[in-house]
Amino acid sequence: MRAIELLNELAAKPATLDELARSSSVHKTTVMRLLHAMEEKRMVVRDDEQRFRLGSKLFELSSLALEQRDIREVARPHLAELNSRTGHTVHLAAFEGKDVVYIDKFESHHPVRMYSRIGLTASLHSAAVAKVLLADMPRARQEKIAAGLDYVKVTDNTITTPEALLAELDVVRKQGWAHDNAEHEAFVHCIAAPIRDASGAVVAAASCSVPIVMLDYEGLMGLLPELTETTAAISQDLGWTPIERNAV
């Protein structure tokens, strides 16, 4: 427990032996012994000013811990709560190979609902979850994918050219969310937001889908704050730290 207390101190800021000893409940020699033991294991390191700071072993362990956390498992309680609050269909989607696949779903509480299922692929040029995932890719990869798609026009709102899709992805990247404005199905629209891992990369997307007869576009956009709050919470559970929280 004393070693953990020291690590917690160093997580706040680097400190010298004397500084750590002053704030510790044990003798300075005990603090020094613990620090030396952790230094041997690369849990702490010393800089040129003899200040201790967290070492590379801790970053290695934290990366392994995050890798062991399954996105579906981490996201599920958050998405269940979103579904409970809104009553609307909630999806979780991620890339599997070249396809965007729905990997989890919470069904609408209402009698009028859309058809979807876990394992179904999402249209890359019209589904909001696909737009969110594509928007985080490097431009060259976006262009390659956009050029190779079969642009099936389902509704008057469906994107039908690579140029239009790339322009849409620019908007999604800047605003931080995407919509499917009745582009994939004429009677359903949805919004989606990104889920990030510890590196900040978008690794999944969550969405709310609603039949238009139940909620107009303005009403759909009213769900956006709850959706982005949910995806931010999932991202933080995956190790992501928003830029604003890093600011001094």
UniProtKB/TrEMBL annotation:
HTH iclR-type domain: residues covered: 1-56
Residue ranges annotated for the IclR-ED domain, each copy included: 57-240
Domain of life: Bacteria
This protein's record includes keyword Membrane: no
Alphabetical list of Gene3D superfamilies matching this protein: 3.30.450.40, Winged helix-like DNA-binding domain superfamily/Winged helix DNA-binding domain
InterPro entries from the UniProt entry: GAF-like_dom_sf, HTH_MetabolicPath_Reg, Tscrpt_reg_IclR_C, Tscrpt_reg_IclR_N, WH-like_DNA-bd_sf, WH_DNA-bd_sf
PANTHER family assigned to the protein according to its UniProt record, in alphabetical order: HELIX-TURN-HELIX TRANSCRIPTIONAL REGULATOR, ICLR FAMILY, HTH-TYPE TRANSCRIPTIONAL REPRESSOR ALLR
Name used for this protein in its record: Transcriptional regulator, IclR family
GO BP annotations, alphabetical order: negative regulation of DNA-templated transcription
GO molecular function, one term: DNA binding
This protein's record includes keyword DNA-binding: yes
Originating species: Arthrobacter cupressi
Keyword vocabulary terms for this entry: DNA-binding, Transcription, Transcription regulation
